[in-house]
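It is worth pausing here to work through a concrete case rather than discussing structure prediction in the abstract. The textbook approach is simple: state the sequence, then state the predicted structure, then interpret. We follow exactly that order.
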Amino acid sequence: MENVNLDKFDLQILRLLRSDGRLSVQALAEAIGLSPTPTARRLKRLEECGVIKGYSALIDESALGFDVTVFVSVQLDRQVDNALAQFEAAIKTFPEVVDCWLMTGNRDYLIRVVTRDLKDFEHFLVGRLTKVPGVANIESSIPLRRIKEGLARTP
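Step two, the predicted structure:
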């Protein structure tokens, strides 16, 4: 995706939708001071150029019984294309893995794992993650409390 030129109206749309993705075009238009038709055109352009990737609900994982979050750093034994692809394919099949990032530095991946409790995390760690071919080292960190939460940064 190339950089997109955004004006003050586009930025207002993004900020409003970041706070409430269910706002109607009419509500957006009223909030930014444009009529609904140009607001709808701007919204469509932001979607088509990939600035807005989609819409989803924010779900409280703990309300569903998933009370444990663990950040896991993974180091592979080799950093070649095939090993990376094999690890990434395995990670995509694990429902416990909510986020996965390829990293720079001394670890290859940082993943966020969400489970019901520590026993479930242990089952995931011992029964699944350590069995992925190429995994050489794993380091887990359990967060105590979230200080700041955000989904995306906007200008």
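Step three, interpretation. Residues 61-141 form a domain with the Alpha-Beta Plaits fold (CATH 3.30.70.920). The two ends are 17 Å apart (CA to CA).
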